[in-house]
């Protein structure tokens, strides 16, 4: 029996239609599965946001809050219904509301704001220190439609820092006062002894050693005070013009008692080298470098201090023939409280703040400390300073270039 051609075509058409429906059905299933996965991920993300330890807030480009999680409620004291639809300025102290303008300008250009430390205000009016990380929110077309902000409470950390600063200042003051008086009394005794040479020889020697110990303790206190000021961002400079070579000679004369086996040689390429810097702070830098050169050259040897002028910069270097520094330690050498790992260095006393202060003081001068060292052969530390004062009002012209 022959098949009806029309019927056969209809059957094939139906089969093709069924196949198309099955394909569409498969597509719908995949989309549904993707939608469920997206909903699941969205639910997970919402849960993370809602129960994060950090306050997570979103707002539009007009600074109107659009979301406010549980941690934001705990941190700032406001419920979500009190804040959503309100301006973020509600939690920003009046004197800091200009920060919002700056933040919005950055975010509108697509930039992120990372770990911006500032102060915000709670519902009860109390102030808290927070660290803010803010990112732009974009739609599917890449247009910025809002901002997402993560706020972390750093009040305890700030308080600890303040307490530490106060503690260091208090201890330094309590130690500094009696030490200053002790030094005065010893100086008076030394003067009297000089007039009576028949006095036991040990007494002037002992007083001389005591004087050195007092100087060492006072220097240590000053170093700790400066570390505290650096951490608080309060270490400032008092720049003046002075002769660097003359200062070096004065330091060597004052510290010649520190060693009996080292030979200190000065190599000055010019008789006078005028720099524009904080004389007191540069004195600290050179003393620390000289003390280290002596301290880490236990077998004695030569210490060479060199200066020269090049391109309106004063270059300083100090070279010793000491223990040298292992390459793995050189990149950490200027970190606060860092001590070299080798047993020889560990036996030498110190707190690991001298080179840290050197680095920070030079950074304030727009300079950096450089080191070249070979283990068991010695080290060279160097830096550069401006040779004369710059005059900002004269568009970078210098005093020397005006004549």
From TrEMBL:
It comes from the Bacteria. Residues 4-38 form a coiled coil. SUPFAM superfamilies: ATPase domain of HSP90 chaperone/DNA topoisomerase II/histidine kinase (SSF55874), Homodimeric domain of signal transducing histidine kinase (SSF47384), PYP-like sensor domain (PAS domain) (SSF55785). This is histidine kinase. Keywords: Coiled coil, Kinase, Membrane, Phosphoprotein, Transferase, Two-component regulatory system. The keyword Membrane applies. Its EC number is 2.7.13.3.
């Amino acid at each position: 029996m022959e098949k009806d051609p029309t019927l056969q075509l209809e059957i094939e058409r139906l089969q093709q239609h069924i196949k198309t429906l099955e394909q569409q059905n498969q597509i719908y299933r995949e989309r549904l599965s993707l939608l469920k996965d997206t909903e699941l991920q969205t639910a997970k993300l919402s849960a993370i946001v809602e129960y994060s330890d950090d306050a997570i807030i979103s707002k539009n480009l007009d600074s109107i809050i659009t979301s406010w999680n549980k941690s934001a409620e705990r941190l700032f004291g406001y419920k979500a219904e009190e804040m959503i639809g309100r301006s973020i300025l509600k939690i920003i102290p009046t004197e800091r509301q200009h920060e919002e303008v700056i933040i919005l300008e950055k975010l509108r250009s697509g930039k992120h704001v990372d770990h911006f430390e500032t102060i915000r205000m709670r519902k009860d009016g109390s102030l808290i220190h927070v660290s803010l990380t803010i990112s732009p929110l974009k739609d599917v077309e890449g247009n910025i439609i809002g901002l997402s902000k993560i706020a972390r409470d750093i009040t305890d950390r700030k308080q600890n820092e303040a307490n530490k600063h106060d503690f260091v200042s208090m201890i330094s003051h309590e130690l500094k006062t009696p030490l200053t008086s002790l030094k005065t009394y010893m100086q008076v005794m030394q003067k009297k002894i000089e007039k009576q040479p028949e006095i036991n020889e040990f007494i002037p020697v002992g007083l001389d050693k005591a004087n050195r110990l007092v100087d060492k303790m006072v220097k240590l206190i000053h170093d700790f005070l400066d570390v505290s000021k650096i951490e608080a961002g309060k270490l400032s400079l008092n720049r003046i013009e002075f002769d660097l070579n003359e200062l070096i000679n004065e330091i060597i004369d004052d510290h010649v008692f520190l060693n009996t086996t080292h030979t200190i040689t000065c190599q000055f390429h010019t008789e006078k080298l005028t720099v524009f810097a904080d004389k007191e702070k540069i004195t600290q830098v050179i003393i620390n470098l000289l003390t280290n050169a002596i301290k880490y050259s236990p077998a004695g040897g030569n210490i060479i201090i060199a200066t020269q002028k090049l391109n309106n910069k004063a270059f300083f270097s100090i070279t010793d023939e000491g223990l040298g520094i292992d390459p793995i330690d050189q990149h950490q050498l200027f970190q606060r409280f860092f001590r070299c790992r080798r047993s020889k260095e560990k036996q030498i006393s110190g707190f690991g703040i001298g080179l840290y202060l050197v680095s920070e003081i030079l950074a304030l001068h727009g300079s950096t400390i450089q080191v070249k060292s070979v283990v068991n052969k010695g080290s060279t530390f160097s830096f550069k300073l401006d040779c004369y004062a710059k005059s900002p009002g004269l568009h970078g012209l210098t005093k020397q270039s005006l004549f």
